[in-house]
Amino acid sequence: MSSSLIVLTGFITWALLLLLLMEIIRSQLVVRGKVPANGFTSDNAGLSPFMQRLARAHANCVESLPVFGGLLLVAIATDQTRITDPLAYVFMASRMIQSLVHLASVSPVAVTVRFSAFAVQMGIGLFWAWQLLFAALAA
Question: Which residue ranges traverse the bilayer (predicted)?
Answer without folding.
Answer: 57-77, 117-138
